[in-house]
Amino acid sequence: MSLPHTTEADDAERRLGLVFALTAFGLWGILPAYYKWTSGVGADVVVAHRIVWSVVFLGLFLTLRGRMGEVRDALCDRKRLPMLALSAAIISMNWLIFIWAVADNRILEVSFGYFANPLVSVALGLIVLKEKISRWQAVAIAIAALAVAIQALALDAFPWVSVGLAFTFASYGFLRKMVVVGASPGLMVESVLLAPLALAYLFYSGGWEGNYVLPLDNPGLLLLLMGTGIVTAFPLALFAAGARRLPLSMIGLMQYVAPSLQLILAIFVYGEEIQPLLLATFGLIWISLAIFTTDTIYRRERRG
Asked: Is the pTM of this model over 0.85?
């Protein structure tokens, strides 16, 4: 009698994990809409607020979960701390590019960058760790590189937003895989390391660009800036909860939800124009992702 009960419990856990993960990727997909509301403030100032308020809300979340000990352990670990300091610098660059691009009506480029991210991660493994890749993975990377080259040459502008987002996020993921620390505690450590610089920058910029340190005269803006901590911490917590309950292959497929939603937002909500040539480069990236995903699933099933 115990076996059916265990199977039902496992199925319930997977369904719960699916809800958590899909919600996380969905929230990341519509995140540009949130930063459209803060576009009147410089991206550098918004990033500084995001860091500070992430400390506040992640600290509250981890305290309620009884996980602040993990944060203290990481802060006192001489081996992990330098790696987390480096990952903190990289994720702050990613946030800056993302928020600036959204405010500058470049959500299409944001979407392209996050579609390309898995392929950049594989390329980093090849270059940095000398990992072996399959023939089909190499084909997928080559097609993605062709798509970037077409954008750079034919559209007369190097797609630095897409490339910058893809490389910073892939590098961030690469570094975080090398550090044994949970997703939320790790981000908390990164935010704590960046917070003094962020606070100093806010006070500095407040004297030059208007009072965005704590805009008490504009409660709506203040709430939006405080909310940057919530929109950072909440999806991450959902993702971590979903990832614990789902197979890695399923999480890998679901990562395309966010850039797909960003693409829909860019075209149908914010009216960004997608030229035929740009659409062709998206077609190439989708072909490369289809090859990459199919090959990854096939190899994983063979190993299993």
From this structure: yes
